[in-house]
Design brief:
- There is one protein chain.
- With about 180 residues, the chain is an all-alpha fold.
- It has one domain.
- Helices cover about 75% and strands about 0% of the residues.
- It has five helices and no strands.
- Helix 1 packs antiparallel against helix 2, helix 2 runs antiparallel to helix 3 and helix 4 (about 125-145) runs antiparallel to helix 5 (about 155-165).
- The two termini are about 20 Å apart.
- About 20% of the residues are buried.
Length: about 180
Amino acid sequence: MGDTRHGIAIEVARLQGDISAALSRLEGLPDEDPRYEAAFTDVIAASSTLLAYETEIPAKLQEPHRKASKKVMQWASWAHLGGAGLLALAPLTGWISWWWLVVAAIQAAVGFLVTGLDPKTGDHYNLRFSAGALTLVTILIPLLIFNVLSGWFWIAAVIGWFVSCAVVGPADNIAGSRGRT
């Protein structure tokens, strides 16, 4: 974050220097001078460049946090997919019936759905909440299938699936909707 702030400060100082240089070319020129209009245009262009850069600063400051949110969601979805894979292997051992493969398929579908989501700058904190819900479901599902927890916890698992998808839900919250990296 310090490097980002330092880079931004350097770029702002450079752009401010461009404005100062353009202003120094403008100073002392009479309005009638043919170079006045070009120098004035240079001041406006340099100022516009600085203003445009300053509108990008919030996104630049959020970028490390956005990348962290994306990584958290990616790990949560991989854990969910791994859990689905292990759950799909459990009927082979005879521990559970083959009907539980339906749950494994749903778990895999949700895992694939949220893998690789690339949030827009301001919306990345939702991805962290969604990752938490997905991780909770990843833990709940095997405990429910092997009857360690009461069947009432299925409600929490289903809500967790919905939350993990709905929190990141609207496509306008996701840049490119599925930006795989």
